Structures are given as C-alpha cells and as structure tokens.
Task: inverse folding
C-alpha cells in the first residue's frame, strides 16, 4: 500500500473539509462584523462589494447554471434603486429600507420580461439583446420624467437613525440579502429545477425531450436572478441617497458583475462572491491611485481579456481542478473499467411479452416534412400497437430519424397528424409530449456532459408541477429512484462520474435510464444496438424485453437485423419518406418491395440471440 | 415636402457612413462568428489617428485614409493574434467578453494619449454645404458617401473576385472543408479581422470630419452598428448596407417627427424587435445556434 | 464535494485578507496644513469644465499660500477625478472625508455631479461651497451646508437677457423662438426660465425639445428648427453641444437673428476655436464672470492665470476661484473650521466679495443676484447687460449687424 506522505495528508478530504469549514466561518464572521472596522473607506468598499456580490450571485443563476450570458444584470440594481427612490419620495414618512421587497419583485418581473425574449433568441443574439435592453431601460429612466425625474435624478432623504449606528443598517441589510441570495442559489442547485437549468445550458433541445419545460424554467430562473438584486439595489440607492439614470444603468456595472462571476467561477456557489470581493477593492484602488477614468478602464478591460484567455473557468473551479489532479495523481479513473455482466438475468427465458390489448398507442397519419426541396418525410403513416416492440427499418436517408424527431417534438411536421392514445400531439412542445409519456433516445447520445450520471438521470421531469421542481436532486425520493434506474441498466458504479467521461455504450445506457425516469408509455429508441459491443447489445435486448414485460411500448429504429428480428414483432419499413411495408418479421423478409429497397435480394436471416424463440428461416432464393 | 426630402438626404448620407463602418463588423461576424464589441472603439481610434495626422502634419483626412487604413490593418492583425485567436472557437460569451475588454482598454488608452475632451477635425468642407434650391447637402457627408461607396465596392470585389476573397468565403461557410482544400484558416481568420478593422480606417477618418468624438463615444457607435448588422442580417454585406440606410433615415426622421431624444432609442428598439420577430434580419440566414429547437 | 471545500478555503483566505486591510484605520490627519478636498470631472463628457475649475482652484491655492495661507497655515488641495460619473464623485468625497481626512471641501463641476456629492457633505456635516450648482433641484432638499458660489440659479440664468429681449420695441423683437436644450439639470431649467419670460411677451415658441448628452449630430435638430422658422434660438448648452449646434446651423444655412447659448460661449478661446470667430460674433450668453470687470482680486487672478496657463481665465476657472474665496471668507470670519455649521450660518448672514462680484445667499443656499449678459464681439467677450455695468454699448445680431 502507499505510504501516507505529508503532502497527501494535506490532501486528505476530511482534513480539508474541516479546515475550509473553519475558514468560511471566519470569513462570514469578518464580513458580518465589518462595520466595526475603524476605516470608513473600507466600510464603503465592503458595502459596494456586497452589492456587486449580490448582483453576481443572481447572475450566476442565469449565466452559471442556465448558460445565458447577460450584460444587463446591472440594470436590475438600477431598477431596484429607482423603485426604492420613487417610493421613498412619494411616501416620505416610511423608512426607505422597507421598500426593498417591492423593489425586488419589480426587478424580478422585469427580468422575467427579459426571459421571455429568450424564447426566440439564444447565443450571440441574446447577448446583444441584453445590451440593447440595458440601454433601453436607461432610456426609459431618462425620458419618463414624471416618475423618474429624468436626468436630474431622485434624491433620497438622508438616513434618520442615530449617528452611532453608522453604516450598520445598510451593511446588515446587504449581508442578509447576500445570505438569502446564496441560499437560493444553493437550494436551486440541489433541486430538480437546478438540474433542469443546467440541462438547458448543456443541451436545450435534449432537455425538452426529457420533459424540461425550458421556457418556464428560464422564466423562473430570470425571476430568481433578479429578485434579491433588486432589493439590494434599493438599499444601495438609499445608501447613496441619490439615483440617476447615467450612474444606475451604466454598462460598466454590468461588466463588473459579469467579471465577478467569471473570475470567481461561474456555476459555483461562492465564486461570484469571491469575484466581487476581489473586483471592488481593485476598482477603488484604480480610482484612488491612478485618478479614476482611464486607468480603471485599462485595468478592467485588460483583466477581462486576460481572464477570458488564461482563466476562463474562473478561480475556484481551476483551483479545484488542480487540487483534484493532485489528489488523483496515479489513480485510475472509472471509465476504463469493464462492464460487468449483470448479477441476475434481467429477463429469464420465460418472460413473455404482454398480451396485446389491441389498442393503438401511437398513430401516425400522413406526415410530411421537407427541408427546402428535400422531402424527408413524404406521406408517412403507420401505427404502433400498445404493448408491442415495433421496429422502424429502412435504408439511410429514408427519413427514420426525422420521423422520430417529429414524434418526439424536436421538429414540427408540415402536414399530417400524430396521435398518442387518440390525442393529437403533433403541435405540442417536446416537453408536453414527454409529460404525456413519450421518451426518446438519440442516435448520437446527448447527455448533459458537465453533470454527473446521477444528476443526468434526476434532471428529467415527469410532469410539470412546482412541487416536482423543488424536489431534491442529490438525495430524497427522486435521487433514490434515479439510483434504482441506474442499477437496472447496470451503471450504478458510475453514479458520480461526469457524463462526458463515459464511453459511447455507457452513455447509451444512461440515456435509457434518463428516459425511464419519465415513466414513459412509449419509448423511441434511435439505433439502440448501433456502435456497441455484442455483450452490450445483448444487455440492451434484455432491458427492452424486461421493460416491455412491465407494459412499456417501444418503437425502434435499427439497422441490426438480427437484433430487430429477435426482439420486435410489428415491423414498419420506411423508404424515401413513406412506409412501404408493414408486418411480422417473416412477412417483411419476403416482401419484394422491402427486398428491393432495403434488405437486398440475397438477404439471409442469421441465427437470432439466444434468449428469444424465433425460428430460423431459410435462405430465400433470388 | 421639402422637409421630408431634406430628411431623406441627411438620413441616406449619414447611412452611408454607417454602412462603411458596419461593413467590417458584419464581415468579421460572418467569417468568425465573433461579435466584435470593440468595433466602435477601433473606429474612434482611427478618428484620433486621422486627427493627429491632420493636426501635426496638416494632412487632409481624405488623403490620410490610405495611411490610416494601413495602420488599422496592422492593429487589427495584432489584436487578432494576441487576443481573438484564443477565443475564436470558444463559447460566444467568451468572445463577447474578450472584445468588450478590448474596447475598454482602447477607451482608456485613447483617453491617456489624447485626453477626454471632445475633438474634431475642421477643414474647408466640414462646415460647408452644397445648396440645391431649398435643400442643403453637407459637403463632408457627401464626400463620405462617395468614399463609403468606394471602400464597400472594393470590399465586395475583394470578396467575390479574388482568391483571398474566395478563401474568406470558404472559411466562413465551411471551415473544415476549407482546411481540406488547402485554405489556411488561421491566416484567413487573421486576414478577415484585419480587413474588417481596416475598413474602419476609412470610416473613422471620415467620422472625424462629421462628428466630434471622444473616447467614450464608442458605446453609442457600437450600439448603432450592432443594430445595423442585426437588422440587415449578421454576416450579410448587402444587408449591412440596407440596415445602415434604414437606421440612418430612421434616426433623422425620429428627431424630426418624434423629438431629439428618440434617435438614441432607435438602435435598441431595432435590435430587440428584429431579434425577437425575425432573428435573421432582412437579408441574413438563420443561424443554427439561434434557432429554437 | 471536495471541489466545494477547496472553493470555500479560498473564499476564506480572501475574506481574511480583506478584513486585514480593513482593520487599519484611515490615515491620520495632519494639523499643520489646511487640506481641502474636491472631486472634479477631469475626464469624460464634462472634462473641459472640470479642468478649468481645477485650474481655478490651483491658482487660488497658490495665491493664498503666497499671501500667508489660511488662518496662518499653508493650504493643500487634493483633487480626485470622477470621470463625469456620479458614483465616482460620491466615492471620491467619501474617501476625501474618511481616508484623506480633509479639513474642508470644495464642490465638483456641474449640477449633475454636485447633486449627489453635496449629499455626502451634508451627511458628514461639512460645508459644501459649490462653483457650479445652478440646478434648482439642488436647493429643494432642505440641506443646510450647501452654497452656490455664482450669482443665480439656472432658472434665472437667462432672466436678464430674456427681460431685455421682451422689452425691445415690437419691430425689433423676434416673433418666433426655438428652445433646444441639453437634457441636464442645469441646461433645461435655464431655457425654461427664459421661455417663460419670452412667451409671456408674445414671442411664439415654434420648437422646444431636449436632446440627450450623447448627441453629437445636430443636423437633424437644426433641420427641425429651420423648418419651424425660428427667428431666435435660445439654447441650453454645456459646452460641446453649443459648439456643434453652431456648426450645424452654418451647414444648414440657418441664420436666426438672435442666438443665445448658456454656458458654452463662456469657454473663451476654446469656444472661439470651436465655432470660428465669425460664427461667435453676436452670440449671447449669461456670464457669471468677465475678465476685465473690476471685482475683488480679479486683476491679480487674471494675471496669475495667464502666467500659469497662457490664456485668459474662462468662466469655470473663475467660478472655481470664487468658490475658494467664499470658503476662505467663512473660515477667516469664524477663525476655525471645526464647527462647519457656524461657517454655514455666517455665509447666510453675510456678503462675500469675489472675482464674480459680491455674492450673498438665501437660507437654502441659493444665491441672490443676477447674472451678467455677455456677447462675443470682434473676438472679445464683452458684457452688454445690465447696461450700467456694460463694457460696450453695441448689441449685435448673430454674425454681425447691430440690433
């Protein structure tokens, strides 16, 4: 065994945990008690840093978790400050601090408006919109003179508490808001809601197919990102005792907030706070030492550029990665381990498929889909009986994946209908279909790479309810169910591995577990046997059979004919966008249309896998 | 009626300047998918260079254009190699932040070198106009329009009739394919960025004769330029021209018919409305990453 | 989970570092010199005015130290740059008071910056003599430490001019007027005040609008004014926008007979260079200052300023000098500066002689007095109103011709 050297003792997780817990406690105490400091200018710095930290912590929710970069976070500080100031001047007898909650709610509502914009724009377009949004809010503040007093700004009364209290009320209010903001961020990360947000960041399209109602999630995230920021803004305005459109809506503030998030490490809990407490003193220092203006611009601009090039992940994640590297030096990761055979057979030989109920689960009628001049799906119609394992086969380019996309909601058809249990679903969003019981895997697996395997499986949302969103992701009933599913597919050993580190075959199994989380009635599998080794193919077959025995209907797209024949009963053959033949495997093999389009005249069905009872068919002479 | 025609004249002329300045931005985006938030700052830099040449050497801005363009080309290449190159393939947020950082640095540096008071170049044509009956055509703007046509025309010829231009277009549509056919994509990227910044050499030079400027003016410009390329379609040169003319006329008309405060809002309203209703702009193609699944 | 512990460690360390920096008290006060602190826009949109004001302050410090200092002690002034940003101005004053422990304060330049800055002074119970606080908003807050060291607030800036125009015989009076103004707490009220008087006299308002600070292209504004057919233009300007308006008017061939601009024409040579001598000819402005007026210490001030900076002092420099004179008068009268409420009370009860003339105040700190009206004539800035202190008896139209 390895001897425990001094260095590795330092890296011992338990010791680290203890030490860092202690440090965080000290830090918290220092920050809370800061107004005891004799230095008034340091107090001022800390107050400004707290505002920045709250802004950054809020931004973390939409940029860190959800992956939408916003250059308008500063606008919500300004909105909060204005709401506070407007109410304070209208109702001079009320303590201005009491307006903070209202300011927060208004900021959250306006942020949700911005969130609505994301329905139509992502990526670079969204960033540009946030810049335009910021300036537009500034414009409204300047022009709406009756409410905001325009460029003259609004002055608030000076604080009316005893001199001895000094800055304590401001300080404590902001500390409270920061604590609330951090708690919210921490809580979100631990819930299904948070998993969904990260899923949206990783792969918004895929997130939709696992029931993550992206628009609603994003709306909530935007609201959450601005709630405490607006409150902090109102306190900040009172502290300055003056709000004006130019100062409150400066793009530099937004840039500083983004800088804080990125410097500290986006998506981490304390990263934005750390970033803010580094940047604010640097800001002050630049102001004082070099005399404002230009020096500040060069320093922050340069910092931004250097950060993006050298430390894009931020301080905390980079440091964590270094520590992790040091600790795991010489150890072997999980991914190379062989997939063990399952301890128990999933589907004993006597598992029978359920008796057919005779009902049609999925009914596809007259589907059409074109891309430009290419008619990928051209009047495609077929049914999937309830309780069956149906296969959809056909040559490449026949439109199979497009049909899947149309069924799962990733695309909408030009014409035609899709009925699930008699209900028309062709115009529904992907998540609505997921909530109605359609699950789907992808030919090229789409897992949320930065999340762990367990988190990937917890992210799907069975049905939309606020209660569901709040369920814990790392512990509790959802996590327990996810673990069960992981064990079912045989991937429980990889529970904490990042999904991106898995091999293709392992990812396919995890994707299946994800889909099962939805409790689906119908599972669409896009080439489940493609690109994996024979042992795994067998396991796939077993899993499918076991699930089918419990009542799940399957629709497969496959090229592996033995696999199909051994597993599926009704087979639909797709060619050039339309179904050309349907029937049992025996019927399909003999159908001349099918042979011509796909199987080929000299097709020979080889011996199927052992756990099914399908007779071997002779060679069909040409 | 006269007022309407005068508005159109002023709007189209100012639009020509905008088109000149936006052409580089849309080119850079089209090829590299980089939103160059520093574009406005580069323009102001070119204006300052022109001003220095004019003040110290007495060189007329029009004559200094080749010099300024060459200098801006070199600066563009340098900035590409030092910064942009590293973030080119990264997530959009990284490129946005990197170029924003460059803009801040440029603003600060310009402030150090040239100070923060308003500057303008004054020549024989900056304050004079041609009269056409009741209408007037400011001379500086007319000259600018002519230069804009020249430079944009040259850019168009470059992109469509030279090997370099074809390489640029190839790299923009299919980088992998371009690599396979022997196009050095890295060099093409640097070239494109440098050309995009070089066009600002002409734009900034003429800007110095029309508008007073100081380092902080670049925010206004980048907002306007973004609105233009968004309206015209990110990556489309004809789109940028169209968008520029529309916004030019829009701003002047807004002052006349709505009030002097409104032109400020025009770029922002355009950006938001276009990106929500028709994200690909008038003439652009829909980006895959922008499409809602 | 280990990631998180590592992160927390680093957070802890950073916070401790910050805490350490906060444990030391701010620098000790030096009692051998009198330190004055001020924040000024040395960079950014109002930098021209900021720089001029700084020069005014510095000239005063130099001259005062040569004459023996303030209360027998040498004077030092600390000027910080707020980059025409209100937050920074607030920060600067907070730092000046708490960190640099200045004994006295002087104001920043422009109402925009002084509105929040004065609140800091008020909170800290320090006298705030302000060289450019013309916005009426400044004095409606019930503050007791603020004093504006010019003759009148913005709404009265153009009063003397407007009254004179209103009293012209009908055939010489313009019939229509345009009122473009910068969206600014000073420029806006200045023009509003003028419009009230002029429209009451029957001069029709054909154009009135506010343009944002960032406006650089005035062609469209001029287009609109020209369309409306204004015979007189009264512009609320700061500096650049005034220059650009004139240039745009030339380009458009717009030639109203009377042009008034607040503030901008008082920038002396800068203004002349900006618009050209021919376009400056006949432009009216309200001035708090004139370099040839025989006011307290003016001759020495002008001489020293020309020596140091090579040009006649522009208005902002004189305003700065005057603010320092007001501050010094209060301090000298009270004999100390520990209780600044006493200084404030003294100012309310007394008149101070400055390079701008005699200044005195209402209880809210707004000044009682009237501005001079100046006009550029032949490249020289002359005082034309009130007629009893005028330096010339000609009054011109814009770009030449007697009214």
Result:
């Amino acid at each position: 065994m390895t001897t425990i050297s001094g260095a590795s003792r330092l890296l011992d997780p338990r010791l680290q945990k203890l030490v860092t817990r202690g440090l965080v406690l000290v830090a918290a105490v220092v920050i809370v008690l800061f107004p005891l400091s004799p230095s008034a200018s340091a107090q001022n710095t800390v107050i400004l840093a707290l505002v920045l930290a709250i802004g950054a912590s809020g931004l973390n929710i939409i940029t860190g978790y959800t992956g939408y970069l916003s250059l308008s976070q500063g606008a919500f500080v300004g909105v909060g400050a204005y709401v506070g100031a407007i109410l304070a001047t209208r109702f001079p007898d009320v303590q201005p601090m009491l307006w903070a909650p209202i300011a927060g709610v208004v900021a959250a509502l306006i942020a949700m408006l911005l969130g609505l914009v994301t329905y139509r724009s992502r990526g670079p377009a969204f960033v540009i919109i946030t810049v335009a949004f910021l300036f537009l809010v500034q414009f409204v503040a300047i022009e709406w003179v009756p409410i905001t007093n325009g460029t003259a700004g609004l002055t608030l009364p000076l604080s009316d508490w005893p001199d001895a209290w000094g800055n304590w009320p401001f300080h404590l209010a902001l500390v409270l808001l920061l604590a609330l903001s951090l708690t919210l961020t921490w809580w979100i990360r631990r819930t299904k809601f948070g998993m969904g947000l990260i899923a949206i960041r990783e792969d918004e399209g895929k997130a939709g197919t696992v029931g993550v109602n992206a628009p609603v999630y994003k709306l909530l995230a935007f609201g959450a990102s601005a709630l405490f920021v607006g409150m902090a803004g109102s306190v900040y305005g009172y502290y300055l005792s003056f709000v004006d459109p130019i100062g409150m809506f400066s793009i530099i503030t937004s840039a500083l907030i983004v800088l804080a998030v990125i410097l500290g490490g986006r998506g981490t809990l304390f990263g934005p706070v750390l970033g803010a407490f580094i940047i604010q003193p640097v800001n002050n220092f630049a102001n004082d030492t070099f005399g404002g203006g230009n020096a500040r611009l060069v320093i922050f601009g340069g910092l931004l550029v250097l950060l993006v090039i050298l430390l894009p992940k931020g301080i905390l994640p980079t440091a964590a990665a270094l520590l992790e590297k040091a600790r795991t030096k010489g150890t072997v990761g999980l991914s190379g381990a062989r997939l063990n055979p399952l301890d128990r057979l999933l589907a004993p030989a006597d598992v029978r498929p359920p008796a057919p109920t005779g009902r049609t689960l999925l009914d596809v009628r007259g589907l059409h889909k074109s891309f430009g001049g290419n008619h990928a799906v051209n009047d495609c119609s077929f049914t999937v009986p309830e309780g069956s394992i149906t296969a959809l086969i056909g040559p490449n380019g026949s439109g199979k994946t497009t049909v899947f996309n149309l069924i799962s909601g990733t695309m909408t058809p030009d014409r035609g209908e899709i009925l699930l249990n008699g209900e028309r679903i062709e115009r529904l969003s992907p998540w609505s279909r997921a909530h109605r019981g359609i699950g789907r895997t992808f030919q090229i697996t789409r897992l949320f790479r930065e999340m762990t395997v367990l988190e990937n499986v917890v992210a799907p949302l069975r049905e939309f309810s606020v209660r569901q969103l709040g369920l814990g992701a790392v512990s509790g009933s959802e996590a327990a169910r996810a673990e069960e599913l992981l064990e079912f597919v045989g991937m429980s050993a990889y529970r904490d591995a990042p999904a991106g580190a898995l091999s293709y075959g392992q990812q396919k199994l995890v994707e299946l577990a994800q889909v099962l989380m939805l409790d689906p009635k119908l599972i669409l599998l896009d080439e489940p046997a493609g690109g994996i080794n024979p042992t795994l193919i067998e396991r796939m077959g077993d899993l499918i059979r076991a699930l089918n025995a419990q009542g799940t209907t399957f629709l497969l797209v496959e090229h592996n004919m033995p696999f199909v024949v051994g597993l599926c009963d009704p087979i639909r053959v797709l060619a050039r966008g339309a179904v050309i033949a349907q029937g049992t495997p025996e019927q399909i093999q003999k159908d001349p249309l099918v042979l011509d389009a796909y199987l080929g005249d000299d097709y020979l069905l080889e011996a199927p896998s052992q756990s099914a009872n399908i007779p071997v068919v002779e060679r069909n002479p040409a | 009626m006269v007022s309407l025609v005068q508005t159109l004249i002023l709007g189209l002329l100012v639009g020509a300047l905008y088109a000149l300045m936006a052409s580089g931005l849309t080119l850079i985006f089209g090829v590299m998918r980089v939103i160059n938030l520093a574009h406005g700052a580069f323009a102001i830099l070119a204006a300052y260079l022109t001003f220095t040449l004019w003040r110290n050497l007495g060189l007329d801005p029009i004559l200094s254009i080749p010099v300024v363009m060459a200098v801006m080309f070199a600066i563009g290449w340098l900035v590409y190699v030092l910064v942009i190159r590293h973030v080119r393939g990264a997530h959009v947020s990284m490129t946005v932040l990197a170029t924003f950082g460059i803009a801040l640095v440029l603003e600060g540096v310009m402030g150090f070198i040239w100070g923060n008071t308003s500057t303008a170049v004054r020549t024989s044509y900056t304050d004079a106009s041609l009269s056409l009956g009741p209408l007037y055509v400011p001379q500086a703007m007319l000259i600018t329009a002519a230069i804009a046509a020249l430079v944009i025309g040259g850019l168009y010829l470059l992109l469509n009739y030279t090997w370099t231009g074809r390489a640029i277009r190839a790299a923009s549509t299919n980088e992998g394919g371009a690599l396979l056919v022997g196009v050095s994509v890295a060099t093409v990227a640097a070239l494109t960025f440098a050309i995009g910044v070089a066009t600002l050499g002409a734009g900034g030079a003429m800007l110095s004769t029309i508008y007073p400027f100081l380092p902080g003016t670049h925010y206004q410009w980048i907002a306007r330029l973004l609105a233009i390329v968004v309206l015209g379609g990110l990556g489309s040169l004809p789109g940028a021209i169209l968008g520029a003319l529309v916004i030019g006329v829009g701003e002047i008309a807004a002052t006349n018919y709505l009030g002097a405060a409104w032109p400020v809002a025009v770029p922002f309203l355009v950006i938001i409305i276009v990106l929500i209703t028709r994200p690909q702009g008038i003439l652009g193609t829909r980006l895959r990453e922008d499409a809602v699944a | 989970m280990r990631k998180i512990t590592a992160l927390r460690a680093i957070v802890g360390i950073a916070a401790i570092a910050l805490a350490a920096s906060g444990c030391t008290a701010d620098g000790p006060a030096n009692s051998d010199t009198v330190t004055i602190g001020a924040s000024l826009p040395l960079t950014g949109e109002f930098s021209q005015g900021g720089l001029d004001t700084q020069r005014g302050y510095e000239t005063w410090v130099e001259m005062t130290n040569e004459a023996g200092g303030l209360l027998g002690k040498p004077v030092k002034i600390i000027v910080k740059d707020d980059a025409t940003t209100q937050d920074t101005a607030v920060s600067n004053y907070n730092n000046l008071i708490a960190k640099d422990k200045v004994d006295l304060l002087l104001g920043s330049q422009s109402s925009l910056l002084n509105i929040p800055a004065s609140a800091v002074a008020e909170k800290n119970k320090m006298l705030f003599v302000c060289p450019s606080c013309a916005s009426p908003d400044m004095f409606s807050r019930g503050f007791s430490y603020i004093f504006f060291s010019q003759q009148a607030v913005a709404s009265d800036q153009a009063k003397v001019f407007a009254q004179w125009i209103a009293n012209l015989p009908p055939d010489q009076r313009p019939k229509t007027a345009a009122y473009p103004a910068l969206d600014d707490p000073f420029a806006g009220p200045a023009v509003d005040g003028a419009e009230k008087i002029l429209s009451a006299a029957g001069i029709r308002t054909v154009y009135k609008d506010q343009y944002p600070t960032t406006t650089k292209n005035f062609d469209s504004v001029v287009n609109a004014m020209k369309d409306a057919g204004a015979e007189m233009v009264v512009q609320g300007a700061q500096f650049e926008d005034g220059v650009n308006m004139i240039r745009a008017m030339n380009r458009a061939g717009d030639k109203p007979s009377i042009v008034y601009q607040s503030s901008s024409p008082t920038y002396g040579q800068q203004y002349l260079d900006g618009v050209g001598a021919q376009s400056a000819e006949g432009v009216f402005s309200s001035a708090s200052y004139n370099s040839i007026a025989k006011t307290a210490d003016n001759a020495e001030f002008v001489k020293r300023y020309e020596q140091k900076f090579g040009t006649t002092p522009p208005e902002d420099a004189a305003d700065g000098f005057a603010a320092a004179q007001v501050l010094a008068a209060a301090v000298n009268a009270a004999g100390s500066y520990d209780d600044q409420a006493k200084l404030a009370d003294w100012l309310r009860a007394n008149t101070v002689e400055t390079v701008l003339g005699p200044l005195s105040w209402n209880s809210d700190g707004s000044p009682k007095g009237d501005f001079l009206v100046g006009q550029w004539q032949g490249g020289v800035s002359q005082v034309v109103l009130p007629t009893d202190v005028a330096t010339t008896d000609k009054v011109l139209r814009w770009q030449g011709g007697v009214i």
User: Anything to note?
Assistant: Residues 287-293 of chain B have pLDDT under 50 and may be disordered. Residues 2-32 of chain B form the longest helix (31 residues).
